[in-house]
Amino acid sequence: MDRLKQYARNAVYIVLVLLVSPWLMLQSFRDGKYRDGFAAKFFGRVPVRNNARPCIWLHAVSVGEINIVATLIPMLRKRWPGHDLYITTTTASGYRLAKNKFAEWEVCYAPLDFSWAIRTAMQRIRPSALLLMELELWPNLIDIASRQDVSVAIVNGRLSEKSHRGYQRIRHWIAPSLQNVDLIAAQNETYAERFLALGSSGDRVVVTGNVKFDSVEFDRFNPRTERLRRLAKIDTDHRVFVAGSTQAPEEQVALTAWQQVSAGHPDLWLLIVPRHPERFDEVARLLDESGLPWVRRSEVDETSGESANEMRPGKDLSARILLVDTIGELAAWWGIADVAFVGGSLGDRGGQNMIEPAAFGAAVCFGPNTKNFRDVTESLIAENAAAVVRDANEMATFLGEHLADRDAEFDSTMGGRASRLVQSQAGATEATGDALAGFVLPNANVSAGRYDAPLRSVPRRMRA
Asked: Are 384 and 300 within one domain?
C-alpha cells in the first residue's frame, strides 16, 4: 500500500512538472535559475557520505531557513558531537549561502519528492535523523525516512493561515505522513494547533518558540557590520535608511520616500537590498532611471573600500544610495540602519523577517501584508515597537519622525522597545534541543523516549 501511495504521488508530481516546465525553461534560459543540481534533485545523486558515524540531515529551503540551521548547528554540535551534519537546500541562493557558512560539512541540493530520488539520497547520506526547517511537508521524503527507521522532526515549525487552508484541502494526502513525523517543534501555539488540525499526533507536537529570535545580533558595532560600514564609507554620524528583502514595487516606494526626506537630511543614506538576486539588475535600471547617483555593493573593492564608480569620469561622488547586490549580508547591514523598512509586505508575499533590524534597535516599519510573521508583527505593534506603512508618503513620514531617535534616550525610542522585546523571546534553540533529545536524538543527558519535562509554553492539550 505504501508503494502504491508513493507511485500515485510520483504521478502527480510528474504531471505538475510537465505543466510548469515551459515556465521553468523560460526562467532557466532568462535568469539561469533551476539549472544547478539536476542530478541531485531528480535522481537523488547527492554526494556519498563515506564514514560510519551517525548523521543528522538538515534540510533548509532557502536563505531564511539556512540562517535557522546556522543557529541550530552550535547546539547540535554541543549535544551530539559524534554526529556528522549533512545540509541540503532547494534554491541557488540558499545553496551559495550554505556553502559559504558550512564549509566543514557536506552541502548539496535536496532531492525532489520523487520516491526514486529520495531512496537514492537516503542510501548515499545514511542519516540517523532528518530535521526539516519550518514547513517542509514532503510525503515521500517523510514516509521513506520513517520506513528506514530515520527519526523525522519539523523544527521551528511554522504554518501560516494561508498554508493551513491549502493543506486542509489535501488533508487526506498529508495526514498519514504527519503521523510519521516524530516531533513537530512549533514556533507558537497557533501554529501547533494548525499542525494538530492536519492530523499530527498530539503527544509529538510541542511549542519551543522561534529560533530566529536566537539567531540575531544585538551589537551594532559587531565586526561584520563595522566592516561593511567601512567598506561603504558610511560614517557613524550619518543617518541610514535600509530597505531590505524588497520586492517590486517596494524599491521605488523606498526611493520616493528617501527623496522626500533627504533634502532636509543631506547626511541620509539609502541602502536597498532586494530579496531575490535575479532582480538586482532590474533594481539597478530603476536607480539609473531616477537620475540619482548610486553605487553597487559588488563594485566596492574589499581591500580599499573604493568604488569602481569613482574611476568613471563625470560620476557624482556624492552618492548616498547603495544597491546591495550580494548574498548573505543583509543581517549585518541591518546593524547600520537608523530606520528600517522590511520588504515583502506591500505586495502579496506576506512579509519577511523583521526580527533582525528590531534586535539592533532600528525604528522598524513594514507594509500591511505580514501574514507570514503575524505573531511577531502583532507583538511589535502592541509594544509600540514597529509601525505599518502603506505607501511612499507614510514611509516618508515615518522616516522623518524617527531620524532623530539616535539623539534620544535609547530605551524610550521605538528601536529600544523593539530590541528589548526580541531579547525577551530568547531560548528557543535550547528548547528545541531538549525536544530533539526526547523525541528524536536521545543522548546521555536526556533519557530516551517521550520528553515529559515542560518546555517553553507547551500547551497541555498537545502532550500525551
From this structure: yes
Q: 152 burial class (0-12, 13-18, 19+ CB within 10 angstroms)?
A: buried
**Burial class of residue 409 (count of CB atoms within 10 Å of its CB; 0-12, 13-18, 19+):** exposed
Q: Any idea which residue has 539520497 for its cell?
A: 121
Distance CA 11, CA 9 (A): 5
Residue 178, C-beta contacts closer than 8 angstroms, at least 6 positions apart: 137, 142, 184, 195, 198, 199, 200, 201
- The answer on 191 and 142 residing in a single domain is yes
At 375 the pLDDT is 81
Closest CA to 124 of 218, 189, 29, 40: 40
- Give the CATH number for residue 172: 3.40.50.11720
Q: Does residue 192 or residue 202 have the better pLDDT?
A: 192
C-alpha cell at 353: 523577517
Is the Cα torsion angle 342, 345, 349, 351 positive or negative in sign?
Answer: positive
Same domain, 379 and 448: no
Q: Are residues 237 and 188 in the same domain?
A: no
pTM check: above 0.85: no
The conformation of residue 366, written as its DSSP 8-state character, comes to E
The confidence score (pLDDT) of residue 120 equals 97
| pLDDT of 274 over the 70 cut | yes
Residues 310 and 258 in one domain: yes
The CA-based angle 124-128-129, given to 5 degrees, is: 105
Residue 171 in this model has a pLDDT that exceeds 50: yes
- In angstroms, what is the C-alpha Rg of the chain? 23
In the structure, what pLDDT confidence band is assigned to residue 308 with cuts at 50, 70 and 90?
A: very low
pLDDT digits (tens, 9 = 90+) for 141-161: 999 999 999 999 999 999 988
Give dist(CA 133, CA 383) in Å, integer: 29
Instruction: Report the pLDDT value the prediction gives residue 15, as an integer from 0 to 100.
Output: 83
Q: Read off the pLDDT band of 35 (50, 70, 90).
A: low
- The CATH number given to whatever domain includes residue 296 is 3.40.50.2000
pLDDT, residue 445, reads 38
* pLDDT band, residue 23 (cuts 50/70/90): low
- Domain interval for residue 319: 223-424
3-state secondary structure of 313: coil
Which residue is associated with the grid cell 526580541?
A: 422
Check pLDDT > 50 for residue 448.
no
Residues 201 and 81 in one domain: yes
C-alpha cell at 62: 532557502
- State how far the Cα of 415 lies from the Cα of 431, in Å rounded to an integer: 27
- 56 and 170 belong to one structural domain: yes
Say whether both 137 and 189 belong to one domain.
yes
Number of folded domains in the chain? Answer: 3
Q: In what order do the strands lie in the sheet with 129-133?
A: 106-109, 84-89, 55-60, 129-133, 151-157, 183-186, 205-207
